[in-house]
Amino acid sequence: MIHKNYKQFLEELNKNKLEWCLIKDYEFLNKKSYDNEIDLISKSKYKQKITKIAKKQGWYGSSLNYFNTHLIFWKFEKGIPYRIDIHLDKALATSIPWIDSKNILKTKIKDKNGIWYLRKDYELAILMIAHLRGRIPKKHRIQRANELQAEKNNAFKILKSKLKEEEYRKYTKMLIEGKRVKLSAKQRLGIKGKLELIYLYPKLLLARIIQPAKIYHYKGNKQNFNIIINKLKRSKLNIKVIHKNTTFKTIKIIINKIISDLVIIADTSSKSSSNQKTNNIISQIYPNKNDT
């Protein structure tokens, strides 16, 4: 069963009759319940409704959501991160926008708990394009790609407009072996996609200016600070640390406020152990909105 924090959000999407589908890790989430993030696909026409649902349920939203091709929401509970990435119209958003949402949504499957998930050929295709971003796949995704090899010909039909057959076979082998593959921006996006991305960048900068990063002042020992940073980074937020005595501190703060989700100004000079638990500090940075 998928963790309740995610499930409550997905149930609300269903109640509002919004089209969506979980595009990664359905099997894993049903076995393990929790992961630090889940990925969905939906349509841009639902953007405002999705944002309203997330806000109502106490999720924080990225300032980039104003203009971006995907929505990012997160929260922390007892120091544990939960994150939802929602790709709009294309999978995978601006990264490798090779699969149209309408093709996924018309073939999606619904389980007994109301969770919409991918047909197996689309699941393998998504695993493939996620792999082409240059990241080493998680172990459970490598395992799942191996389990789905019976679908490799059908998955190729989905991707054949983007990959030659010999490329597809090569990358499939590298995926199931857990090897890194990174396509160039030209291969991933094409000329049109690169131009669209260039056009998008100023709008994302404007979004950061409209809603700059949260600033938190930390004072304590270095050991606790490192624990806090590691926990925060599991949310995959863009976090910048500026130490108290750094040169050009003010300039760095101004710059990082418009390129980050969170800026921490840190004084780790304390030698004594703090009585304040690291989870409590994370709760100060991102309070649970449902408790306020």
Describe the structure.
With 292 residues, this protein is α/β, with parallel strands linked by helices. Helices cover 45% and strands 17% of the residues. The chain folds into 2 domains: 4-205; 214-291, no CATH class. It has helices at residues 4-15, 26-32, 47-56, 101-105, 120-131, 139-147, 152-159, 165-176, 185-210, 222-233, 249-257, 278-285, and strands at residues 21-22, 38-42, 60-61, 70-77, 80-88, 90-91, 99-100, 109-110, 116-117, 214-219, 239-243, 262-267. The strands form 4 sheets. It has a 5-stranded mixed sheet. A 3-stranded parallel sheet has the order 10-12-11, with helices on both faces. Helix 5 (120-131) packs across helix 7 (152-159) and helix 10 (222-233) crosses helix 12. The longest helix is centred in the C-terminal third of the chain and has 26 residues, at 185-210. The protein is globular. The two termini are 28 Å apart.
